[in-house]
Write a structure and sequence with these properties.
There is one protein chain. With 401 residues, the protein is an alpha+beta fold. The chain has 3 domains: 173 residues, Reverse transcriptase/Diguanylate cyclase domain (Alpha-Beta Plaits); 98 residues, DNA polymerase, Y-family, little finger domain (Dna Ligase, domain 1); 41 residues, no CATH class. 36% of the residues lie in helices and 24% in strands. It is built from 14 helices and 14 strands. It has a 6-stranded mixed β-sheet. A hairpin with a 4-residue loop joins strand 12 and strand 13. The N and C termini lie far apart (99 Å). 25% of the residues are buried.
Amino acid sequence: MRYTLYGIGEGVRAQTDASLWASQQAGWITDASLSARKLAVQPPLPVKTALSLIPNLLLIEEKDEATRPVSRVWERLYQFSPWLQTAGWDAFYLQITGPTAPFAELREIVQALDHMLNVEQRFRIGFAENPFLARALVEWSRCGRIPGAVYRRFGRQQVIVSPALAKGQRDWLAAMPLSPLWILPTKAKEQLLSLGIYTVADLLALPATLLRRRFGKDALVWLQSLTRQSDRLTSNYPPEQRTASFCAEQAEALATTQIPHLLDSMTQELSEQMTREGVGAKQVTLYWLTADGVQGQYIRAAKHPIVHADFMFTQLLPACAQIARPVTELSIRLDEIRPLATEQLSFDLAEHAPGPPASQKQDTLTRALLQVNRKIPGGLALGMIPSYRELRHQLTVDGSA
């Protein structure tokens, strides 16, 4: 049987030696050190409010990537189990197997994390039967104590064990309040609370037809998440990579003057692959091995995902000046793969793609004419109105005939 750990970090979205710090994004506090959290700086919080609480608070702009401590945590967790799913830049799901709840392995995992993090960082971890319940433990523990759950602390790390695993209480989720239930939108929570629905049990007691009539089809998704919890986990670690490589015999090493041409061909290949998949890369790395055994690498990071071959080639071109000898191996690796955000700007017909049928436009115009002429007979007609000169010319032609 698989058991799930869900952990979310506190004080891990930035890396600094200061004790009182907070990461910010778009005017809001997204994370804070443990010392700052003890002084009431609890994310999410406006930056102005945080500075009023701690005037000497160090503000750090949050980056769109995992910090080095979080990356090290993910690497260590992957050594315990291959069923690892990262969530955002500070959370994870990890599944471990066993005929019974593996508490000894849980203790080993949490102690390993405690040794890797500094005094201003920690993880709050929920241990339950499936991913949904594991996260429910963590979210619920932020606003109150969970009846029947077992709380343990390993160093600075906090662990909440499910009441089902600790004491055999299978229906503990029914008593969960709606306020920490993350699957419900904020407006839906407010409406439910105004109706006297305070817990998950109250929500499940309502007829599904009534919920759908009030909140739409999303209500059915809420009910399904609460009643049909799956133990499946989508593993996404190690992160995806895209590579293109070249290898030659030592006697046929590639001259330095030919490296730019090879780079152009390799970037074109990678660009076509990512375009088909609708993804881009935020980090490009070039590796090379010269004929005399010297290795080298060149790393470039971008703020937005790279997908175009020309831009990728331009980023790697300065590396050619660092390669002084013919090479036998050359490879490009793309890391931090991200999906591309699509935005509809206009309707451009690609190559020989057919446009909208003319009959569709004609039908729309005909319907408009019928609707107007039904109210105002003879108000609209198809065609063009002739000008005064055209009418006079037509009268001249008709008279001469």
